Amino acid sequence: MKTVIFYYTGTGNSLWSARLLAEKLDGGKLLPMKGADPFLAGDAEAVGFVFPVHMWGIPGPVLRFLEKLTLKPGIYYFALAVNAGQVSRTLIQLSRLLARRGAKLAAGFGIVLPSNYIPWGGPGPEERRNELFRQAREKIVEAGGFFTGRRSGLIERGPLWQRIVFSAIYKLSFKQVPKMDKDFWCDDKCNACGICVNVCPAKNIVLASGKPAWQHHCEQCLACIQWCPQVSIQYGKKTPAYERYHHPEVQLKDVIG
Ligand SMILES: Cc1cc2nc3c(=O)[nH]c(=O)nc-3n(C[C@H](O)[C@H](O)[C@H](O)COP(=O)(O)O)c2cc1C
Q1: Do 31 and 7 touch, CB atoms closer than 8 A?
Q2: Of 148, 172, 196, which closes a domain?
Q3: What gap in Å lies between CA 96 and CA 77, rounded to an integer?
Q4: Which of 11, 38, 56, 118 sits in a 20 to 30 Å window from 83, CA-based?
Q5: Mean pLDDT for the stretch of residues 83-87
Q6: 192: left (phi over 0), alpha (psi -120 to 50) or beta
Q7: Which tens digits make up the pLDDT trace of 179-208?
């Protein structure tokens, strides 16, 4: 096992990116971070991380996964931070985190794909989404070449103002994330199919009296609202008007663990 790529995803953008990267890396093995054995990458020469940017930084589940992972100084570590246009300080955060544990992030690229952050709106017009897919594909090929050549020194980041302002917001919001599920609700279209229960990586949803109930250990991946086939799950007041999104080449079965 030469190359291992660990991924975390809510709506498939990161899984799609990781799959494409694995193809470019010629036999890179893809493993979900969720439930992964931290020793799995034991004999790998190169280890990659592909995950979404959440609130201008690394999502909690990815941080917890990284804390458990066995890191070794000689391994080539690389990453794709999948985002909707504001990678901010995410890859610097990853680089420092690995450095503290004696490992080095050789290179990290930001990959821009349609936004799944539905409280702020839908994923944008189809034409724009297709353009993002095209650009992302090109960039992942470029990143693949960079990683295959074992090059280093490129850690992408957002502008300075973004890194300062949004890092502060990340730090302030981080502890609130588990309880941010208080704004989820579900309308009359719910038929208690249980997909939200199964797609939630945090096992944060139970069906109570035939309706989803969120248990306040949310990861804010938004898989529940985005994958609901009845478009019944809502968040706050505005989401009834917003289009749902998941990556078109990723299916529900691919994200249910
Ligand atoms: C809670 C949350 C916070 C997000 N914060 C950011 C952000 O800070 N910057 C950004 O560019 N995109 C942000 N996004 C958008 C996602 O990073 C983006 O849509 C990503 O492609 C989703 O990947 P996934 O489909 O693998 O989950 C956020 C999404 C969620 C759900």
Answers
A1: yes
A2: 172
A3: 13
A4: 38
A5: 97
A6: left
A7: 999 999 999 999 999 999 999 999 999 998
Could you tell me if 73 and 200 lie in one domain? no
Residue ID of nearest Cα to ligand 1 atom 16: 83
My answer on whether 150 and 38 are in the same domain is: yes
CB-based pocket (< 6 A), ligand 1: 9-14, 52-56, 82-86, 113, 115-117, 220-222
CATH code (residue 183): 3.30.70.20
Are 122 and 242 contained in the same domain?
A: no
pLDDT tens for residues 164-177?
888 889 988 888 99
> What pLDDT is attached to residue 41?
67
Task: Report the nearest-CA residue for atom 9 of ligand 1.
Answer: 86
* Shared domain check, 149 and 61: yes
| Bridge partners (DSSP) listed for residue 214 | 205
- The pLDDT tens digits for 21-59 are 999 997 788 999 987 776 666 688 999 999 999 999 999
Q: Does residue 94 share a domain with residue 14?
A: yes
Provide DSSP, 138-162.
HHHHHHHHHHHTT---EE----HHH
Owning domain of residue 83:
3-172
Distance (Å) from CA 74 to ligand 1 centroid:
31
- Token pair of 244, please? 């749902």
Q: Which of 141, 172, 203 is the last residue of a domain?
A: 172
- The pTM score is 0.96
- Among protein residues, the one with the nearest Cα to ligand 1's atom 3 is 54
**Residue range 217-244: mean pLDDT, rounded:** 97
